[in-house]
Amino acid sequence: MTDRKAELAANLARVEERISAACAGAGRKREEVTLIVVTKTYPASDVRLLAELGVRHVAENRDQEAAPKAAECADLPLIWHFVGQLQTNKVRSVSSYADVVQSVDRKRLVDALSRAAVGAARELGVLIQVALDVDSGDRGERGGVGPDGVERLAESVAEAEGLRLDGLMTVAPLTGPYEGRPRAAFDRLTEISSRLRVAHPAANMVSAGMSSDLEEAVAAGATHVRVGTAVLGVRPRLR
Length: 239
What we know:
- This is Pyridoxal phosphate homeostasis protein.
- Keywords: Pyridoxal phosphate.
- It comes from Streptomyces endocoffeicus.
- The protein is an alpha/beta fold.
- The protein contains nine helices and eight strands.
- 42% of the residues lie in helices and 16% in strands.
- An eight-stranded parallel sheet has the order 7-6-5-4-3-2-1-8.
- Helix 5 links the parallel strand 4 (100-104) and strand 5 (124-129).
- The longest helix has 23 residues, at 3-25.
């Protein structure tokens, strides 16, 4: 085993222990929570090692990095998640490799993704990103639509050809009433998810929690946690 593979294996084991302990503490089964490894800024060689170690879900947040990396790893049995703020001019590229787009927060983006998915003869999973640092349907500081805009946007996704409404995503807010309160933020997301599933029962994904707060996310009911640093190490500084 190479040094890097051994390092990743040890890190994955520690993250697995954390998720398992959090599930036990919340009275949940371990299989209820899916680990998504956020591979941004790390090379395709790391993605290959992660796949060898059993990782099946990976995430990227910048198309210019993700597209070539996904192409280089196209032979691997991976599910690719796009988690960054997405501009409409990148939609065609993202829809060619992403299986799930977790950062949908406006109708214009829904329409663009629908056109791209149909053009590529693919079905794209969609998560609506919920901004918990705003009260109204405005976009949040880190992207996302306010809680009162979720239902309308969900209807747009559900009606859009080529798209599948899978659920909701959030990032713990840096400002507003949930600043420094990730558990409260994730509890709020779970409440919004429960309401959404009344009209859209299959939209049961709740993506929340990262390296620093995955325990709070699991306790609140997250079905997917997005972990980068705890698996891959401290990220290189972007130039």
